[in-house]
Each structure stands twice: as structure tokens, then as C-alpha cells.
Records
---
Amino acid sequence: MAETSMVEAIRSAMAFEMARDERVMVLGEDVGGSGGVFRATDGLQARFGTGRVVDAPLSESAIIGSAVGLAIAGMVPIAEIQFVGFTHNAFNQIVEQLARLRYRSWGTLSAPVVVRAPFGGGVRAPEMHSDAFEAHFAHAPGLKVVAPANPGDARGLLLASIRDPDPVLFLEPLRGYRLIRGEVPDGDVTVPLGKAHVVREGRDVTLVAWSAAVDLAKQVADEARAKGIAVEVIDLRTLVPMDEDAVRASVRKTGRCVVLQEASQTGGFAAEVIATIQEDPETFYSLKAPIARVCGPDTPYPVQMLEEGYLINTHRVLAAVTRSAES
Amino acid sequence: MLEQLLNARAFVMEPSTVPPPVQHLSPEGTLLVAEPVLSDAEALAGLRAILLGRRFDERCVHLQRRGLMVTLAPGIGQEACSVGSVIPLDRTRDWFVPQYREAAGQLLHGLPLVQAFLWHMGSPLGFFVPKHLRMLPFNAAVAGQIPHATGLGWGLRLRGTDDVVVVHFGEGATSQGDFHEALNLAGVVKAPVIFFCQNNNWAISTPRELQTASATIAQKGIAYGIPGILVDGNDLFAVVDVMREAVARARRGDGPTLVEAITYRLGMHTTADDGARCEPAGMRDEWRPKDPILRLQKYLQRRGLWTERIGEDMDREVAAELDAAWAEAQATPPSTVAESLRHVFAEMSPRLAGQCDAIEEGR
């Protein structure tokens, strides 16, 4: 057990799996000699060779499309997409091909591919390098969507994702790569997909978050305590499949809920969380206040000057929590 | 200025290295090369495979018109392309990756005929890949399967085998990004893949000349470091010859090949969209005599191996095979939506399990 950064934990998971299973390989842009633009694959090529850590052409659709074929041939590919906004260059390959291969072959073929991509903004990156597009992919049947918030979970969830028999989109909090540090267990310690984590316990308001927004939720929980509001923070960890029971159990306890979403509001994943909460009668009748969501405005992710004002912040989340607690 | 530079060949404009299409059999069935690439028995078997594909497609179009089948894309007139691609393969280990117009080759490579019928009946069992069948399900998203072939070939090599992959697509697919991305990557990693373009001149209603300003599709390989070759796609012997060479290259580790087979769509794009009304008058009449079946029959006739009697026997045999498979397809119990929910993930999520229960209980 040692304290490491997010990016070190992710690298450690890949190195562990590649040493354990020779079918595991990494492909992506600049993942070899350079070790990836965020250094997530640093040193892997030197250790495992150019055959298993492959600098791919600047060609997202071929990276994902070939990963489908590599998987059918018996490899276990981890495909890195440099920024989540570029996954759309491979949208057809991810949603129409990768995600539905098992279904369309009636269970006879599968593609255990992990697609890793940095997720979200907040680091003053160029335009189109800071998107939070989880909802586009959570809407794709056959694809699991994982969004860890801390290094320990990132390592354990990535190990579980690589071993999962189905394709996984693994979203890594871009601004947390180095900023978010935490205890990371050594060795073969996985975190199961589909299990949420209660990060803070509280009886007044439930805050649901994923990825970098979990840190924000924890800060708000601390600030709310000073105002006498006990906030329970749920880190979803996996969006698909979602841990419905954990979310509903918390809301039945508190009767109040605020959902955080970095992405723009309309059609976002927060709406899915809210619908999941309220369509269960027992949970619905336990509600004492309308379920709220704090999201980005319905604009594209902005250029740097507007970034700070665009991103959800403790002020907005605390206001929503207070409104919920008072209603 | 630009013209001067062009004249001085400072710009590369015209790949001069692409020779005319390889041809072994004239439309009259005469052999244009010294030795036939297929023995008489192999030629007869090839003709039978083409005939099975033809009669299958014809029957399916007929059944579709009677409301018994869904939209389908027949390969009528183009069967020598897929059959000639499959003949040089070892079906126990080499892969065939279809687009959606290659029933003849798929059947020869081992797709059970009953499954081919089920596919056109809209059954998910048509996409089921039986164990040991080295084939991907057909792909209705044009060009979507081409990068899969690159990865599959690459992966087979990483796994230490010398198995090869053949992927089919039309000339329309070569305008898609996936075609270019797949060839580019295959060139870099030397994937053992034969990219087989059936240039049938029509993408629904859009003719070949509106698809690309390139003089040939084959030359597109050059930019990716992949040799390209043109072949008469209605000449089974020529297709087999070119494919044998390309398969051997791939198997010995020399990388991919792009094959452009010149053929013609004598059927329709699909039963839902017959682009034929856009074809210039007389174009079909020009192509009908080049039909791969006629050509093989004439060749065999010249060798004293084709009589009316042999033709009738073969037709009867093929019809009986189709009758039996069609009866089996009709007797296959229908698949259900509840069953389909079991094939989304290896294990059903609680939500899918709930949806499955709701469907089964009619909620």
C-alpha cells in the first residue's frame, strides 16, 4: 500500500496485467516511446516490447476497429484514445461494432476491449480536449462505462475492466491525473464493476457523483457539515452497469438527493440517475424534496477563458444541497 | 506555373504501375493463359459454388417479394469474386470477413445454408457464428468491417500463426474513412489481410465515376505501401490466381494486398432499393454475356465436360439442397426478445435481468 497519483495507479494496473497475461496489449497514439501524452503508459514499451505496446497511426477508428479484430484473434487490447472528444472519430466502431458484437453474433463472438480516455476539463487544454461525453456511451447497449474518482479505485477497476469479458469505456479524470492522490494497494486487488461506494455517510442529503466530481462532492460535504447538514456522498464508480441498489438505499435514508454532472445538462447521465431513483416506488415515496442536478450549461465545453465559470463548483453544489435540505 | 510543374512531373498524378485487369478466361470461355489454375474437377466445383449462390439469391428475392423475407442484397453476377476469394483459403484456419453481398463465398467457406436463409428471414440466428467457422457476421454498416479485418490479421500474427484474412467490400466503401484507416494501419503493421474490393460500378444509384477521381481503386493501395492489383471479377480463374498469390504473400509475412475486382451488379442494390433505374440503357446488356456462370460453362463445354444433362443434374442437386435448408429454416423456432437480452453482456446486469422479467411477464 503506497500513496500514488491517479496516472501512476493506471499505469500500475496495465503493467500488472501485461505481466500476468501475455495476451494483454496496449495500442494508441504516442503510447510507446513517449509513454502517452499523460505518461499513463510510461515505461511499458521498454518493458513489454513494441509488439505489445504499439504506437498507432493518428487514426482513432482504426485503433478501435482493429482492437475488435485483435480481440477476436484472442488478444486483450487496451486502446488509449488521447482525449475523450476524439472518441467520436471512432464512434461507429465503438457503438455500432465493438459494443454490439456479442449481441449481433448471438453470444458467439465477444470483444474484451478496454477503451481508455481522459475525461472532463479543468486543465486549460485546447478547445475540444476537455469534453465529458459519458452519456453518449452510456446510451450504447453492450458497452460498460467506468469512471473512477481516486487512484485506488482506478487501479482496481482497471484490472477488473481488462479481465471483463465485455468491452469497457474507462474514463479517467483528466484534471485528477496528478492532482488526485491516494492509497493504492499493491498486487492483485480488483474493484468489481457495478458497485458504488459510499464515500461519506450522512443522513440529510445524498450527493451522487462520478469521476473528478466526487472530490467536489466531498468538499461540499465538509462545508455543509459546518451549516449542520449531513451529506452522504455516493461515488458511482461504474455508470454502466449502475449500482441502483446503493443509490436508492441512500436516498431512502436521506429523502433528498442532488446529482452532479460535469457535462452539459440536457440528455446527460444525471437524468438517468434521477429517473432510476424515482421509478422505484419505495424510494419515490421516501422523497422529501425534488431531486436536483447540478450540471454544466447547455453549451459546448468552452475555451480557456470561460472554463472556470463553466465548470460546476462548490458554491453551486452547496447552494443546491442547502435548497434541498431546506425544502 | 502549376501546369508547368505537373508537366515536369514534380507532382505524382498518375500511378503508371497498375496494369490492366488480370484475365484467364475470355467471355467465350477460351483459356488466355498457358495452364488453367484450376483442374477440371475444381472448375466444376467452383461453378457449382457460384450456381448455389446464384440460386440462393434468386430464391431469396422471390421469397422476399412474397413477404417471407426481409430486405436483402443479392450478389447476382458477382459470385466469382467471393467464390474465387475463398477457394485459395484453408477454411479450418483462414478467415473470411464479408460485407453483405457475398452469400456464394460465405457458403463455400462453411456458412450453413440454413443460417443464410435465417439471416434473410430477419432471424438473429443468421448472425450466429458456429464454433470453428472462421467468419464474421455480415456487416450492414458499409466499410465498418474493414478495420476488424486489419486487427484480426494483425492479432493472428501476434498469436504466432500464419493464418490469413480476406475482407470484402464494394467500391462505394472505399470512400469511407474506415477503408483508409484500415489500409493505412495494415500497411504499417504488415497485417496478413487481403482487401478485396468488388467494384460493381454502383453504390445504390451512384456510379463509380462519382465515387472517386482515381483512375483505379487498386492504386489506392500504393499510398499505403500496399500493392494493388486489378482482376476481372467475373473470371473465376483469374480471381483464384490473384488470390493465391495474395494469400501466399500474406502467409509468408509480406503483408497486405489490395485487390480490385471489376464486376457488375446484375441484380439490384437491395430488394428495398433498386438503383438499376439509374443505369444507362444498354449497360446491363453489355455485361450479361460476361456472366461468370456462362463463362465457366463455355470453358467446360470446350473441354467436353459440360452438357445439357450435366447442367440439369447440377441444377436439380442445387435446388434440392436449397429446398432442404429452406424447410429447416422455416421449422426453426423463432427467437425472442427476452432471449436477446442474454446476449448483450456475458452476464446480465440487474437492470437487464429486470427488463427480461418484464418482457417475459408482458409488463
---
Amino acid sequence: MKNDKKYLFDNPNNVKRLLHILYACCALLVVLDLVIHRHTMHEWEKLWFFYPVYGFIGCVVLVIVATWMRTFLMRSEEYYDNPTNTDVDNGSLKNDTLNKKGEHHVDD
Amino acid sequence: MWMIETPPFVPFFIGALILSFTRGMLRSAIMVAIPIVSAMHLMMVPEGIHLQFTFLEYQLTPYRVDKLSIMFGYVFHIAALIGIIYSLHLRDTMQQVSAMLYAGSALGAVFAGDLLTLFVFWELLAFTSVFLIWARRTQRSYDAGMRYLIIQVLSGVILLAGTLFYAHENNTLAFGYIGLDSVAGWLILIAFGIKCAFPIAHNWLTDAYPEATVTGTVFLSAFTTKVAVYALARAFPGAEILVYIGAAMTCFPIFFAVIENDLRRVLAYSLINQVGFMVVGIGIGTALAINGAVSHAFNDVIFKGLLFMSMGAVLQMTGRINGSDLGGLYKSMPKTTILCIVGAASISAFPLFSGFVSKSMVMSAALEEGYDWIWLMLLFASAGVFHHAGIKIPYFAFFAHDSGLKANDPPNNMLLAMAIAATLCIAIGIYPQALYSLLPYDTGYNPYDATHVLAQTQLLFFSALAFVWLNLKGLYPPELRSTNLDFDWIYRRAMPNVLQQLFSVIWQVDRSLRDALKLKLNLYLSYLSGKNDRLSILLSRDYPSGSMAMWVAVVLATYLFLSFIQ
């Protein structure tokens, strides 16, 4: 099926529009923070823009830490399928095991 | 009246039996009818103990209805109905029967009034649900199911041990508040904790759920962990350790979820994150917190089910589930896209969606009780869950780059099941009083005050802004085909490797010991034979064994001869 129909986000302008709506909402929420009187239960909450800043920084930290975690947690997709698979592994444990393979004697 | 005495698991078990003999439309009709009839029956049942008998001097209570259990009873009926509608197109007796038995076991567990009955259903949950994983009929799913079964059964065995200790100490099996004052309490907590996916005991979930069938995962996501949440809420409300365990559960899975490629595994991680909120609520233990935990469990069953259903639809229609393979599906699966976004908004706790009205109770309770740092962790987890479940799931499946996959919206029954779940998500979000009226405590909580709504909306919108910013900057980790190591590496890789090395060392030591011993023996032998050689050559080592036989014959003959002389 050849699909020539233009969809909503095939047009980059629509993506831009969506992003602008998001920016506008964010700006509005920041302004509301100053306008609405909030019943805070905690002193941190009293800080101006506590929630927006916390949300933004929290997510950035989350993504950066998660990306960093990839450096030592990521293996190939078939990692567990093959018990001798070492691929990108630089840990010495598995290489040692590989070298030891075939050395043990079941019977003498 | 005998009708009242029929526990809700009975219709499900009988239904499962009938399913194995019926086919086609009749089977579908029976499958849909059972949860509906059973739910209507449950609505008429008053609170109290409806079935009780004595077994080996212990009072067993297989059917007890109270505010806490009936809440889970209702949501399990809803989950069963939605799951059944979602799987109506299947022609797989094994899956349909085991799903029915599984739902029945979950109901049996939440209405169990004593620990022995709980144990029986606890194990049944494991044995009936594993078929939903094996039904995928691949080697991978078989292995994952095996690991799942081993861990689940282990949890049951620990529960049984705890039960025996408990019965010995208290001389009763009644399942009520247990607390952590005794060995029994800790054993039971560990058993519940394993099923609840506590940190480091959580990998059965992220391992097995994504390997289950499209429809099986929907059932799996609803029952096992929520039964454990129910059991914790019953036995350990206010146990402070749960606050910290729960907070850890909300935070660590989101890191894994961000880098995970299999979108159903992302959902499995976010399931742990959501259960974390419930565990925190139970740990805080105030009326508001318990209400929050229970209502969040209620909502989670529905919105997590919806998300698993939408990802199941993607898997069913495209045959792929990795974020790296998907994208642009909003064009060909528009209905699924919208339904998935409703689920994503609910789990992210957007105002007017169901997650908001329950999660905010736990957060408020944490603040009220002075758990400031826990509250900050929960807030971080709220932003994080929006990030990975609210944005990542819909974005990588339905938007992002166009993968060029051509698919259609799934069959009508699947769409209907998703639509029911989505309707409930929105209905509870708009009119939370309906849900609150079912809750164990009356706290008069109102989630929709300006402060809460503004705070949550700010948090979410700026999380979205962070996503956009990271994406535009190219900092967002791309979806990569990969396996990410988690704690299961310990028992899937490290332990086998260590054991292998250990055995190889043992074998080597064993060989050298034996060699040394043999050498010694040989030395002694040659020393003795050398000595003997010097005395006489008759029994020499170098002599053939024939000479030995001859000498024996000579000796015997001499004896014979001597006996004749006498």
C-alpha cells in the first residue's frame, strides 16, 4: 500500500506549532505561579517556581544519569541467549571463564 | 443463603472448567459473562465473614469481605473483564483457561481470611499465570517463565514458613495485622516483598512480563503485584521500613526505563515505580496514605492495563515492540494512539485523569507525616514516570521518526477493551468521589484544589519541556537494540559463572590431590615390593600372577596331603 497521504506531523510547521503551544503553556504556568495563592505545606514549596524547576532539572538529571548508566549496563540484545557471549563486556570475570573453559576435568 | 457463601473465585474456577469443553461463540459468551455475573454477585454481598470451617484445629476463613478486600475484589473483576474482552479473538484454550484460573486465584487471595488459604492462592497465582508466559511458545519465553515460576514459588515457600512460625507463636492463622515484631512477620514480609517486586527481588517482573503473550501481559500486570500490595496493606500498615523500600522502588526503575528498548519492558519498570507509590503509602500508614495506596492500586490496574494493551496492540499488529523498530504509527493506528495517550496521561497523573486523584493522596500523606526527603523522591519519580511512561512510550511507538511500518488498528474487541479502560481512567479522574466512596477510610480528601492542580501541571509541563529540550539538543539517549544489565545479571550470569569457576577449581584441586595420592601409593608399593624382592623372588612384583596361583595350589595340595596323613 503506497501511502501518499500527508499526516499531521509530516508537516514540520505542525510540529513547531505543537512546541509553541507547549512553550506557551509553560510560560502561562509560570505566570500562574505568581498569581495564584498556594496553600503550601512545606517550606520548599514556598520557593518561587519550585515545581517547574524541580521537574525540569529532575528530568534532565534522570536522562543524563540513565545515559551514563548505558556505558556499563548495556550489552547486545542476545547477551543472555548465549552463555558464552561476552560481546562489549570488558569485565574480566567472563573472559576468565572463557579461558578456563575446557580445563576442568569431569573424570580422570 | 448459599449464594452469599460462594466465594468469588468459585465462578472463575468453574468457568475455567467449562471453557475447556466449549468452543467458539459459546466460549466467548461464557468468558464475558463470568466476571460480570460474579461482580454483580459481589456487589450484593455484605461485609463480614461468609465462609469458615475448622481444619486441624485451626479456623480457616476462605471468604471474608471487608472494605479493603472488596476494593481489590472490584478492580480484579474489572481487570478480568477488560482482559477477557481484549483476548476474545484468541483461539488458544491454554491461555484462556489459565487467565480465568489466574483471575480466580487473585480473587481467592484477596478474600482469604487466613494465612493458609492465602498461601494456597499465593501459589496458585504463580502456577496459573506462568502459562500466560509459556503460551508465547518460544524458547525465550519458556526460560523466562521458568525463572518467574522459581521465584514465585520461592515466595510461596517463604510465606508458608512464615505462616507456620506465626501459627506457632499466636496459635491462630487469622490474616490480619501482623507487624514486624517477630521472625514470622519478617518472613511474611519477605514473601510479600518478592511478589511486590521489592528492589533486588524485582527482576522476575521485568524479565517475565515482556516475554508473555500480547494478552497474557495484560492479565499479569493486573493481578500478582496488586495481590501483594493488598497483603502488605492488610498485614503491615505503618511499617516504616516500607516507606524507604517504596521510595527506592519509585526511583530506581525509571533510570532503567529511560534506556530500555523493549517498550513492554519499559512498562514493566514503570509498574514497579507505581507499586512503589503504593508501598510508600502503606508504610506511612495513616488513613490518607492507606487510602492513597489502595486507590492508586485500583487506578494502576486500569491504566497500566490500558498501556500494556496499547503496546500489545502494537506488538500484535506490527510484530515488533522495540522502540528502535517503531515510530510513526499514529498514521496507521490512530485509535490505539489516542487510547495509549489516555493511559499515558493517567499514569503521569495529569489532572482530570485517574492517576492524579490517587497519587496525590500518597504525596500529601508523606508531607503531612514529615517525610520530606521521601516526598522529594516521590516528586522526582512523578516527573520521571511522566518522562518514560507518559512521553517515551507514546512518542517512540506512535510518533518519532517514521519507521515505515504499515499496520492497522487492532481487532474491535481489543479496541473495545482499551476504550473501556480509557473511559474508566477519565471517569475516575473527573469524578473521583465514586472511587473515594469505596475506600477503607473516609478522609474527605479533595484532589482538585488550585495548589495541587497547579503544582502537578507545572511539574509535568516542565518535564515535557525537559524532554523537548533534550531531544532538540540531541542529548536524549536514542533507542538502541540492547539488553541492559539489572540485578538479574547476578543470578543469570554472575552466579552461574562463579559456580562454573568454583567447580573448575574444585576439579583441579581434586585432580591434583588424587594424582599426588596415586604417586604416594605407587611409591609405597614399589618400596614394599623392592623389600620383598630382596627377601624372596617368589612373591616378587615382577613375577607373573600365574606363579602366585601355582603357589596357592601347592599350599592347598600340601594341606590336602597332610589331612590324608592324619
